[in-house]
Design a protein that fits this description.
Strand order of the largest sheet: 2-1-3-4
Distance between the termini: 42 Å
Number of strands: 4
Largest sheet: 4 strands, mixed
CATH class of one domain: Alpha Beta
Order of helices and strands: HEHEHEEH
Shape: elongated
CATH superfamily of one domain: Glutaredoxin
CATH topology of one domain: Glutaredoxin
Radius of gyration: 19 Å
């Protein structure tokens, strides 16, 4: 194993991972309770996020737990609205009206976590 090849291999792996993330198909399921204001806001917010950041590569299913309680039980939904990212793995859950866009994007692996800025040198 050559040490001089490691950076090129690391860069290729990083580029491959980024390309896979950019082409990944997302399967999302949003659990809501009827037509409440909170549920309606969550639906609008997640649709906007999906259209802006995942256009053409997502599937969003909206499940009203008052109409389909067994689906909610199977997923162990304890609060609504709840968004579950089923694919790509890992599975992730978000609770609330989906208005915290940056938090959702981080959780969906669509944004890199911002690293803290180094202190200025004196």
């Amino acid at each position: 194993m050559k040490n001089s090849d490691a950076p090129a291999d690391d860069l290729a792996a990083l580029e491959a991972a980024a390309a896979a993330r950019d082409n990944a198909r997302y399967v999302l399921r949003l659990y809501v309770t009827g037509t409440t204001r909170h549920s309606a806001r969550a639906i609008v917010n997640i649709r906007e996020i999906c259209e802006e950041h995942l256009k053409g590569r997502y599937e969003l299913e909206i499940v009203d737990i008052s109409q389909h309680p067994t689906l909610a039980e199977g997923e162990q939904i304890i609060a609504a609205p709840t968004l579950i990212k089923q694919l790509p793995l890992p599975l992730r859950r978000f609770i609330g009206d989906m208005s915290q866009t940056e938090r959702i994007l981080l959780g969906l692996d669509l944004r890199e976590m911002k690293s803290p800025r180094p202190a200025p040198a004196h």
